[in-house]
Design goal:
heterodimer; A: alpha+beta; Heat Shock Protein 90; Beta-Lactamase; six-stranded antiparallel sheet; 26 strands; 38% helix; B: alpha/beta; Transcription Regulator spoIIAA; 3 helices; 34% helix
Chain lengths: 689, 116
Amino acid sequence: MTRRRLPRDPSAAALARRAVEADAAELSAAQLDVARLLVSELVTNAVRHGAGDEVVLASQVDHTRARFEVHDAGEQQPTRRAPRGAEGGYGLNLVATLASRWGADADVGVWFELDRADGARAAAIEEAIGGQLATVLDGLAEAVTVSDAHGRTVYANDAATRLLRLTAAEQVGGASGSELMSRFDVYDEQGEPVSLEQLPGSRVRAGEHDPEPLLVRNVVKATGEERWLLNKTTAIRDAAGGVTGVVNVIEDVTQAKRAELAQRLLAEASDALASSLDYESTLQRIAQVAVPGFADWCGVDVPGRGGFAELVALVHDDPDKVALARRMRARYPVALARRQGIAAVMGGVPFFVRSEISDDELRAYAQDEQHFRMLRELGMASVVVVPLAAGGQKLGTLILARATPGRPFDDADVKLAAELGRRAGTAVLNARAYTERAAIAATLQRGLRPPKLLGPPGFTVASHYDAAGAFNEVGGDFYDAFTTADGWMLVMGDVAGHGAEAAALTALARYTLRSAGQLTQDPARAVQHLNATLRDLPQLSLCTAVCAHVRVARAGGAVIVTLANCGHPRPLLLREGALEELGCVGPMAGAFDDSAWSCTEIALQADDALVFYTDGVLDTVGTDDRFGGERLHAALAGAHSAGPQELVAALADALDAFRAGPQRDDTAIVALRFAGVPADAYEAAATGT
Amino acid sequence: MSEPQGFSAGELFEMAERREGSATVVALSGELDFGTVRQVQTRLAELRDAGAPTVLDLDALTFMDSTGIRLVLTACEDAQRQSWSFRITRGSERVQRVLEAAQVIDRLPYTDPADR
């Protein structure tokens, strides 16, 4: 406490004011004015009504308040002098009105306090920005408004004036919340209408503390302009906590929100497009992504026959409208010679956009009154058409339309539509290429698919072939069987790779082995030929194969199987319930120029079975393991005495049961069972008679 | 305890007079308080007794407390009783704040009622 002793005479009030100015200098200008006035009042009272020679002024200022005490030298107890009469009382009335609290007691005299939390902050702001508050607020990008307890906007900075479309009269006279709301359509992020009562400002006035900021889509009714606005609110409260006003800060986040929506739309488009492999459904997916978030309906056209656009996909929220659009386009086809809309963009215009299409414009475009009515029913308030383009190739057009007025496509929307068109174009191109490749593969497959095998005399034969992938009916696995000068040859192989390229190599390998096998009747030399052929190809081409030649030995009449193997899984011999892997494995064909292969000969007995298979069998993937040799042996051992059909079926079933997830590799299985035949059957074959 | 140094009462207060038409304008400047009010009271009493139309000019006051309010209200009562023409200017900003806080601002005879 700072104490000042003042003479109890008429000069005391002025001296006391000087003391306040010195001792409470840290108060804001406004509070210092109040302190000076009230101290002046109390000292004047002490001089006029007190006793003694002195008046003592004590003061203390801290961060939260300033306290002042006045008493007159203690000769008599300071008494509270109540206001009385017309002539008096104004002094203490002022103290009661302007002080945060006041009182009188024997020890300290009459005292009052001024709370200064807000005052100090206000003073700091005042010091920093002087009288320029309005200028500062007008410089903000955010819209700031102050509304009173009834929701009437009593202040709006420049940004708010623009954002809320305040008239000149409203800038002066204010505007009610409902007046302002009537200018806009307001929706939340889910597209539900937002009422005035749901805005944070109204909620604060209704008694809510700290409502969450609210993000709304705000459409200016007059122009259709769309904005995303983040509404934040701070209440101004009186001492009792009642709301006396509301400060609203409205941030225009349209750019950020648009970017976010565009990203989401494009991401959805990419997901949808990546998951589709065929051309038609790709187009349908493009249309689905854009509706209804971005447009009310969407269509894809490609140049069609007879100089007309062909509508290949159309999505509308309302299925009746889809039917309507299709009927309309069937009846009123879009001639590519036209210079508007779809035809213009197919003709090379980078984009076509029309907003707020009037009935007159629509009628001018329509071919007759019926067409006009159909267009109108479909909804054509705003339209944007962009190319469906990829790599400089124009595949068609994407048309996006909003059915109701008030949401015109702006520049950002057109850019987004164009990007959608580019992505869709690429996806369409991919889908088209994939579809075409699949068609080529299917054609090849008809020529390449392993033939129905006819076994040599005395043998029964069965085969099983599974290509990996729905579109890859021809994989890298192949087998073939043909007669030779002195017998019969079975070839089975697997070229590296899958799809169309593998199919071409498959064909090469298969026919090379057939030709060489027929010419040489020697499995090792057939494989040698295959190696030379593959080595001649410009790119590294690898193939595993096993060749088995079946003939009757000249001496003794035994049936002999001669095997040569280039990197292929060894065939299995089932004899009397036992399993044996046959032959030796040489290097893979196509790997080295100087590879060499030798033959293994096996004399067959009656009831012997031979099983040939590709590595797709061993590599079939289960839940946490590959199928492998042991399971293969087990599957065959269980059916060791059955016919070849049952052997193949037992193995195929075991693979199906084991497999987890989609098939990854081609699998081929061929089984032969030797019944034992008259030796002369082979003699005949051998001599050509 | 310390004595306030270098302070002196009254030196910041001045009273001047001028004629405006038929009215005598008593113009106050500086700080009007219990220490300085007496000379104004004296002069207003003289003008009242002489029946001179009087305007009290408060526009240049840098401080006024309830002493000033009592001065003005007393003059107003005299004016009503004695058919004396007494009016005041609306006063400096600080004067207006005090009149407002004391809730008398709306019932004083201003020279320019249109401003109120």
